[in-house]
Amino acid sequence: MAKKSAIEKNNRRRRLVAQYAEKRAALKAKALDENLPLEERFQARMDLAKLPRNSAPSRIRNRCEVSGRPRAYYRKLKMSRIALRELGSAGMIPGLVKSSW
């Protein structure tokens, strides 16, 4: 099990990304618009830099929904390989059969 503080920090980042997504997209579009004057685009970049760093989507870490483990994460199942193996062995995942010989 991962540290509770690391899991909560990641959840806080997810909330910030959702909160600032609209504002960030508008500023980014304004900064990339070639039809606007250079000063206006520069100001949009400066406003973008003033937003909280944790509101950037790239700062979210993929974590296992079961254990909070950040490594060996399967995106399709939203869990780590270890949790997948345990739940698969217990027969909790439909269609998954753990091979053993």
In short:
This protein is mainly α and 101 residues long. 50% of the residues lie in helices and 4% in strands.
Multimer state: single chain
Biggest sheet overview: 2 strands, antiparallel
Strand order of the largest sheet: 1-2
Q: What's the structural domain tally?
A: 2
Give the end-to-end Cα distance, rounded to a whole number of Å.
29 Å
User: What letter string, H or E per element, gives the SSE order?
Assistant: HHEEH
How many H/I helical runs?
3
Runs in which pLDDT lies below 50 for 5 or more consecutive residues are none
CATH topology of the largest domain: Helix Hairpins
Helix content: 40-55%
Percentage of residues in strands: under 5%
Description:
The chain has a two-stranded antiparallel ribbon. With 101 residues, it is mostly helical. It has helices at 4-32, 38-50, 81-89, and strands spanning 73-74, 79-80. The chain is built from three helices and two strands, in the order ααββα. Helix 1 (4-32) runs antiparallel to helix 2. The model has no long low-confidence stretch (mean pLDDT 92). The longest helix has 29 residues, at 4-32. It has two domains: 1-61, Helix Hairpins, CATH 1.10.287; 62-96, 30s Ribosomal Protein S14, Chain N.
Task: Note the topology.
Blueprint: H1 4-32, H2 38-50, E1 73-74, E2 79-80, H3 81-89
Antiparallel strand pairs: 1-2
Helix pairs in contact: 1-2
Which tags fit this structure?
single chain, 101 residues, Helix Hairpins, 30s Ribosomal Protein S14, Chain N, 2 domains, two-stranded antiparallel sheet, 3 helices
